[in-house]
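Q: How do we represent a protein-ligand complex in a form that can be generated token by token?
A: Start from the inputs.
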Amino acid sequence: MSDSILGKGIDRVDARAKVTGAAQYAAEIAVANLAHAAIVSSPASTGQLSAIDTRAVERLPGLLRVLSFQDAPRLPGAKLQSNPNDRILQLLQDDLILYADQPIALVVADSHECAEEAAQLLSPRIVSHTPSVELASEISRAYAPKTAGPHGPTDSRRGDPDSALQGAAVRVDQTYETPTQNHNPMEMHAVTVVWQGSEHVTIYDTSQGIFGVRKKIAALFGIPVDNVRVISRYVGGGFGCKGSPWSHVALAVMAARVVGRGVRLGLRRSQMFSLVGFRPRTVQRVVLGADRAGKLLGIRHELTSETSRFDEFLEPSAVQTRMLYACPNVATTHRLVRLDIPTPTFMRAPGESSGTFALESCMDELSYELKLDPLELRLRNYAERDEQEDKPWSSKSLRECYRVAASRFGWEKRSKTVRSMRAGNALVGFGMATATYPARQSAASARARLRKDGSVLVQAGSQDIGTGTYTIMAQIAADALGIPVERVTFELGDTTLPETPVSGGSQTAASTGSAVRRAALELRHKVVTLALSDPTSALHGMRVDEVEVVDGVLQSRARRDKKDSYSELMARAKEPEIEVELHTPEKPERARYSCHSFGAPFVEVRVDEELGEVRVTRVVAAYAAGKILNAKTARSQLMGGIVWGIGFALLERTVRDPRSGRVVTRDLADYHLPVNADVPEIDVVLVDEQDPYVNDVGAKGIGEIGITGVTAAIANAVYHATGRRVRSLPITPDKLL
Ligand code: MOS
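Then emit the structure tokens for the protein with dioxothiomolybdenum(VI) ion bound:
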């Protein structure tokens, strides 16, 4: 048997196309007679638009149309939300202004430059009011939303947390805050739209969920779903903002219909801060009570977050607190405050990234109260099962993650007291935390086709948002078929291919992967059966279980010289190709288990006391996330999550001007992201884990867990270094001086 291709750290199969420029992104698709659109953004946060003065642009050469609420086509589905995970859009249907930079008009022109210039020159007349954009000033109006979205109920309670916390020998009660943050994928949102007649449209988008875009556009424009084709073959990063369609997509579709030409619309970087969602600000109170031995007796985690006036999105930051530690008395609540801001959305590990900052900071505070090592505190409260769901874990190797990461990091060298470790002028601190993220799976379909030359084409709608989907799907198919990975071509990113779920929630490997595996196994079975019934095959008359497939060769297990091959079989076959298409539902066994990935980041920081500057100097993090499908792409996914954790802890913050409601940090000079100089050596350890229940490929998903826990580990290390507990992110120098 040759080694399985599954798990090998092979290079990305799309790497060459990307570095040579052959990979075409949504804003690069060549279309004949293309027109260009630009969004006119509202300078005001609230109010009413009375008119748009177009006199300044009317004589601009190349201007085709200006659309506003006065003359934009009415869309039958404009107020519809097709599911709770997509947003209510602003599509020039009325004169209301709900947030700063909201689209209030659309310019269509022959050139991009003309469209942009006209968009700047238009003067909207607005009757505006003073906006309310500060969470703190509206917090008394917090309300309970109906659900925490896909994350279950808004509130949870087990046991009697009030009495337990009251009676606890040691108690910590603190409030933690995380700021508003914006997604900044390298590839900004862009779309190229071409109508075929007035009933069929093709949309080249940069999307994490092409089937969601198709559904939304069909509903908005009142045309059948099958008349909308969405293509998204390459995506330059997603992180949640590309998980659902935003206003600009529908506006481009509208513009293309109005001018009767293909239309391209790309957002400027500044528009990325208002038009495609964001991570909402959170205020989180955490109360932990324990006995003197460090056994948790009660936990309370109360979140308050922000949403828009007109739509609802909840950052479910307290959800992981329901299951992360063993504790009989736990209560969690989620509340929302409405503000004059756009609607927030999913942003890498929505909930767990901000939530673990609060919970894992508070655990660290409790460890000092107890004079107990922070790692030891977590081990004393290790959850052997999911106590909220009352289910066993499908698998959990967190203990091994703690052990491996602590030992590689050298955790035992940590001094017990704060401010006791130094390197030159800098204070040195060690911190750790627990990382966690759910292992999701959704139903998906896939197709596998054996071609005349013995190569295999595998197709699934899906998306590769930079995570390595093209590569791991080819590996899964090659492994299941018993052929070299070079003989597999995998296609994705087109709604004419079999339907798969959104590439969000770290579920693509599990969902689309299981579908690809099943289609490939079924294709192999079909081919083997064909060989057995073919009198001219050396395998004729054998049983299916007597045959194995290795490197494309079908051979008898007992007598290897008796063989056939995919290519020889196809050469003899009458059919030009053999095809299988299958729908793979969520694995039924999952219902009996609680399915999560776990990990443990350990961090060293150095703090310059005079400047208040924090440098993360070392990160060692171990993760157990089921089967690792490609060691190289997995490592870079986790590393990317950790880098974002560094940005979350030290740099990222969206600032709104309270007077105008506008985002003032609207470019990458003012909105700080980690650069290479901010990122140290990152040692990612993948802990081997077999999970037969979680899904057919056994992979738990690794796109999001990397960002969880890291912020707390950094804040905990800063406390260990300096004795300063920073409970409000980011940890900027002013908070340490
Ligand atoms: Mo992720 S926030 O589900 O793209």
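The pocket of dioxothiomolybdenum(VI) ion is lined by residues 208, 238-240, 243, 346-348, 350, 504-505 (CB under 6 Å). Residues 508-532 form the longest helix (25 residues).
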